[in-house]
Design brief:
The strands form eight sheets. Strands 1, 2, 3, 4, 5, 6, 7, 13 and 21 form a nine-stranded antiparallel β-sheet that branches. Strands 9-8-20-12 form a four-stranded antiparallel β-sheet, with no helix packed on it. Strands 14-15-17-16 form a four-stranded antiparallel β-sheet. The protein has 19 helices and 28 strands. The protein folds into four domains: 144 residues, P-loop containing nucleotide triphosphate hydrolases (Rossmann fold, 3-Layer(aba) Sandwich), CATH 3.40.50; 166 residues, Hedgehog/Intein (Hint) domain (Endonuclease - Pi-scei, Chain A, domain 1, Beta Complex), CATH 2.170.16.10; 134 residues, Endonuclease I-creI, CATH 3.10.28.10; 83 residues, 434 Repressor (Amino-terminal Domain) (Orthogonal Bundle). α8 runs antiparallel to α9 and α11 crosses α12. The chain is α+β, with helices and mostly antiparallel strands and 604 residues long. A hairpin with a 2-residue loop joins β4 and β5.
Length: 604
Amino acid sequence: MQTGTFDLVAPYQLAGDQPKAVAALTRGVQRGDRAQTLLGVTGSGKSLDGAEPMLLWFDDGNALVPVRTTIGELVDRSLERRIDALASNGTELHRPDRPIYTVSLNPRTCAMEMKPITWLIRHRAPRTMFRVRTTCGRSVTVTGDHSLYVLRSGRLELLPGGDVRPGDYLPVPRQLTGRLDAVAARTGEAAAARARAVPVAWSVGQVALRETLGLGGSTLLPGWEYADEADLASALERLFDRCGNVEERSAGFRLPSSESAGDVALALLRFGIHARITRVWLPRFDGAGFRWYWRCAVSGQSDLAAFAAHVDLRRPERREMLERAVRASQGHETDYVPLTPRQLRHVRESVHLPMRDLARAAKLTARALSLIERDERMATTEQMLRIADALVRYVHESTLSAARRDGALAAAEHWRALCRPRWAAVSAVEEIERYDAPYVYDVSVADNQTFLAGTGGLIVHNTMAMAAVAAEVQKPTLVLCHNKTLAAQLCAEFKEFFPNNAVEYFVSYFDYYQPEAYIAHTDTYIEKDSSINDEIERLRHSATQALLTRPDTLIVASVSCIYGLGSPADYMELSCRIRTGEEWNRDVLLRKLVDMQYRRNDIN
């Protein structure tokens, strides 16, 4: 839909110094300043460590098949296979050669959605990185300017990794799925796809996988992500027999590495079970002294009950111990919703709702609600949902001013949204100096620009200041980049910010043919190719046409734009503007098309 004006669409607000920077840049443009500088641009290396785990879903035509990999392995292998990847100044990127999906947080609703990956990106590594750790043992290593969505004071904020601090909360998926119906995922029916997530036959491979998952060892073997729920539960059961134990209020696995613990935590998420990862110094299994292990433990009444329901322990004594642990955890939960201090009390008093009435309607004791309002106790997800529902019922039954009613309903909807993921409290942010890996990695995700990565599974963000300036100025905009690689990445991002406007790509041709080559270690022969220039030609004409016909045009270009496609007058001579509803004489239109060098054939 053409709007004629720039309509910025973004699921988050400007944060930190961004509003100030956007205001200053806008004033400079309106004054006619010829040069302004903004430090910290999009595409300057906002990425993750290559060893960070990812759980992805590959489209095989009929289903989305889950694959556990690392972000470095995903990007490196893909770049190795592709000869048309854009590369310049230490940055390489290209589109996936087949559809790949990831779990993505929708910042508007806090819902977890299945979204396609649109770009795979590799940067030269900076010298300093940051490792963000949570109290439940999850972690992710990012560059200082890679953005993370955090819950701070009850509000979702987008912050650079270096600005995250202890006390913030990171979103974690409430549950993961296995194989998905590909058609539903492509049409965005995430909820329906999840409901229809049933095991798909693997023919011979399913039997082999089931047998492999049953082999000995103190970790889940590669391929666990392909298993259906029954086989995965059986694999977890066998693993628990070998390296699990039940304590007074928890049950856990003793694992040899953080990667193994992260895999078990992801596997448990298939059943909606959240685990805590801790590093412990324990006796070795073979009795030869002590060593460090990683314990992936389940605690809290709801998670323990789900663990007991899905993982059927073989040994009667362990089943009995687990049942005792579930009973001992009565009233103890690990699924909490962090709110802004005093927020609940402020909203309740704004609509003149007595605390006892709200407590009764939410099936809470007055003391429990009082503790939550005084920030001495966090509400569980179940309690928060009951409180929100009770508030909505009261507001609809009361005679309140429109402002008070709308404010209370907005607060209730915000609380409901916060109940959709689970939240992991940040325990530490460690600066890693002298980072020695050659590359860092990123992926661009459709719509939400968030994806699941890290040990145990956290939601991170990939890169809005220039988009906000364009929306403020409301003039045709040229974004000039120093290389084709950055231009392609920015063009993809601007298209997501301005879906209703003309966002175009204008770069110079590649002045060489891809030479023939042979890669010995992969036994790959690469033929000569220059077909990419045909696509660039189409994109250049599309950009020129948009600039001459639409006021809401944003062009992302390399320095080749200074040459353009010649005189605008000459270009318009070879164009024909036809509007919906206009009437044209057939001969006049045909003569115009012939003048533009169109040819007719009897086939098309």
